[in-house]
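Handoff note, outgoing to incoming analyst
You'll be picking up this chain. Sequence as last confirmed:
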Amino acid sequence: MLIAFTLSFDEVVVTLFTTSTENTLPTTTWAMQRYGIVPDLNAVSALTMMATVALALTAETMIRNGSARKH
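Most recent structure output, in case you need it:
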């Protein structure tokens, strides 16, 4: 599920053809971009970036803590 979510940001055209009538986050942001930069798009982009950084930092911390316990 996570890989599908990640790839849907990369392949907007494929996402548009495979989602049919459902709206996903990437298709919604793509539709918002067609009308210009709006505050909602800025907020969604900022939240997505913050979530990505938080997950990466959490994973890095877990990896470092796990490797420290092995020694």
